[in-house]
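[job 4417] fold queue: 2 targets
>>> target A
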Amino acid sequence: MTSVLRAQGLGKRYGRRWALRECTIDIPAGHVVGLVGPNGAGKTTLLKLAAGQLEPTAGDITVLGGRPGGSPAQLAKVGFVAQDTPVYAGLTVAEHLRLGARLNPRWDDAMARERIARIGLAPAQRAGRLSGGQRAQLALTLGLAKRPELLILDEPVASLDPLARREFLQGLMEAVAEHELSVVLSSHLVSDLERVCDFLIVLVGSRVPVAAETERLLATHYRLTGPRRDPDRLPAGQHVVSARHTDRQSTYVIRTDASIHDPAWTVGQLSLEDLVLAYMEKRPAESRRVALEVQR
């Protein structure tokens, strides 16, 4: 499987504080990848390292087979839309497109202009007068018109209303289908990831407890509810992701490739949000152990 991003023991330190430490990750090509995790897990730092905006303190990272930001050709392969969907308030929409054409050797001006017209942005309008959704669409257009092989989006819809989020994600999926690019999208809004992502990575405390196609994840994770039972009494093939107990009842989220036949359990399917929350509840040491199990 070809990787668009691969990191081994990756770390970034600011003074005495590690924003990312000992992160090992392998992101496959040809997917829309959702990257999710709690605040402080290192998601933004990882994406900035991948975009070449930061230099690692420790470990190694390659993007599309090369060092991030290592050359103009390498930079041209990656599009990046930061968390605040940055645009220049004093520049018009048309001036943003001209600037993009000057800075990017693979710039697709026809696509940029067609997309701006399709989403209803007036070329003469200054970016500072656009709505949040319009600024996000302009930033996405600039990223797409680079014709990147990998598009990195760091929580691009976090501040948008539901309608603007839907329009942004719809435009993203249309671009993915048309241009066959790989995407890494970080977000706290798991419902949005569920709509657009076919591969999920959970990052907790710089560890990756789970990384797989969403279809496979949902097919191999279950919620078990029944009489109180200690985890060591579960079958060997049922790997506990999270557990909750009362005096009389146990509720487990488990991962298993086998069928569950125990009549004592009520077996339920998980939503992607349920699955993400179960992994985010785990402590880092537990996440490391489960990650090794998932990879086997």
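>>> target B
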Amino acid sequence: MKKVTILALSAFLFAVSCTEAKADQVTTATEQTVAETAGQTFAIDTNASTVNWTATHKGGLNPRFGTTEASGTLAFENGQLIAGSLVSDINSLVTSPESVDPAMSDGKTSADLDAHLKSADFFDVEKYPSVKFDITKVEDLAAGTESKTVGANKTVSGNLTIKGKTVNVTFPAKVEVTENQASLESKFTINREDWGLAYGAEGDPKDWMISQGVDLELNIVGKK
């Protein structure tokens, strides 16, 4: 029995070590002053914009993924992103059915996972129906910086507020603007415990296996 346990642990550690990151790691800081809006303002097109999320068990195993809707604004001055506010409605959160196999999850479906994520164990949507991101600073991406976001050209910092707690995060992003449309794309990973989303960190071993890292993929389109 001990030999089997050791082999299982070795296999798990090997899986963790071989998992390739698919998103950039954010840099975190305390809450910062929000950048002032000026210049041209683009309203986020909710129908054309998405926030994709992916959560896994440790080692990148058993991924769950889905989407939430996004709204808000992006502000540009002299062709440069200077400010913006994004709001993600957690009531719109949907888990992709293809990421949940009831046969492998004690009969639970993607709809069951949606309900659990919206409960007090995680987002507690009755008290905190949305997640908000307010830009605090935008800089040119440093030369030679590698990013999982293809075409990344900026470093964006902003206050990310989840369940009433605000943490400033910084990540690479691809930002583009034309006369009538603007876009912001990024792939980054946050640690959910930074915002008090600690469900599964202790207790039942099967829940402890839930990774603390959550991948977010922003595909934001703003229009005049």
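[job 4417] complete. Note on B: The chain is about 15% helix and 50% strand.
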